[in-house]
Amino acid sequence: MSALQSATPQPVNLLDFDAAGLTAFFAERGEKPFRARQVLRWIHRGFVGDFDAMTDIAKSLREKLKQIATITPPAIVADRLSGDGSRKFLFDVGAGNAVESVFIPEDDRGTLCISTQAGCALDCAFCSTGKQGFNRNLTTAEIIGQLWQANCVLGARGADPKGERIISNVVLMGMGEPLANLDNAITALRLMLDDNAYGLSRRRVTVSTSGLVPAMDRLRDECPVALAVSLHAPDDALRDVLVPINRKYPLRELMAACRRYLERAPRDFVTFEYVMLDGVNDSDAHARALLALTRNTPCKFNLIPFNPFPGSPYRRSPAPRIRRFAEILIEAGVVATTRKTRGDDIAAACGQLAGQVDDRTRRSERRIVDVRKLD
Ligand code: SAH
Ligand code: SF4
Q1: Is residue 347's pLDDT more than 80?
Q2: Is 307 touching ligand 1 by the criterion CB < 6 Å?
Q3: Thinking of the domain 75-369, which architecture would CATH place it in?
Q4: 130 Cβ closer than 6 Å to some ligand 2 atom
Q5: What is the pLDDT of residue 89?
Q6: CA angle 42, 138, 24 (to 5 degrees)
Q7: Domain coordinates of the chain in residue numbers?
Q8: What pTM value is reported for the model?
Q9: What is the number of other CB atoms lying within 10 angstroms of the CB of residue 81?
Q10: Cα–Cα distance between 171 and 114 in angstroms, integer?
């Protein structure tokens, strides 16, 4: 036996398991499924990270768990509050990498935007995460750990004094492409939906994708939640430039995948995200082409004013241009909202979650943005 094999086994991080995984973990150790359910509730409803606090679990089992398991979320290394109430958390995910979540409170909901990868390999032209390159997929513990930590920090154990949840909605719209890390994302999604964990309805959990068609089909089959698709261009020539994955999954295939998704989706529309880039994709003609493209696909549009970042070649479309663009869609009977630019003062708007990534893809033009140096 090598020295490595004889070393004490690494404790298992229970945040990596959904209900089925935890049940299997307990079964392998001769424990009943209801024990797994109890522990799941302690972790994801009680936000307890210490086995000794799990008072209805037999002391002998607690001692055993302490030997073989941990409950370890990624550590929060920065926590910034913006003037408009949004709040950004920076998490250390090891080896020089950090990822971010943003909490966005609104009158009728509180949304947490979480990350799924350290960096992103898809290299969209206007995205600061993409420009940092890709390091690795986050584990399930690192994905769900962002929600776990935010619940702990935002207090009231996930509920406000009126009995409402502080975090009522989750969007996988932070750093990374969730559908390129689908196994771990699905396990985390199952925890979000589980009544013994976060108990969110499918309509309140949204996955945002740049359009990985086969993975959209898998998500539909395995864990359909609300879907947002980053469209950004009405034709293949422009989308090939802005969202390079379009060269692999062009618009015709993407639109067909959206319609297939809708057969099982909890909402009867897809949200198309459309970043407004001055002089690039924001003309009246682009708006009309979008209407033609999406004619057969029930959808809503979310227009996102571009968030500039150092070194980016693009500018945000002027407000009157965005208004006119929205009007063209609305006049044709399509719902189009324009995203408020929140958290500008702490660089917390979606798509601006810079984090810090030790780029393994080593593209020559890569820059590393360390948000901790942006004070
Ligand atoms: N990878 C997924 C989810 C993360 S990006 C996706 O691409 O959908 C979340 C959203 O922010 C996407 O719609 C993305 O296109 C948008 N985005 C990225 N960079 C942006 C920027 N600089 N300004 C505005 N939106 C941006
Ligand atoms: Fe990746 Fe999404 Fe950024 Fe594109 S927009 S590079 S898919 S995180």
Answers
A1: no
A2: yes
A3: Alpha-Beta Barrel (3.20)
A4: yes
A5: 94
A6: 45
A7: 12-70, 75-369
A8: 0.92
A9: 14
A10: 6
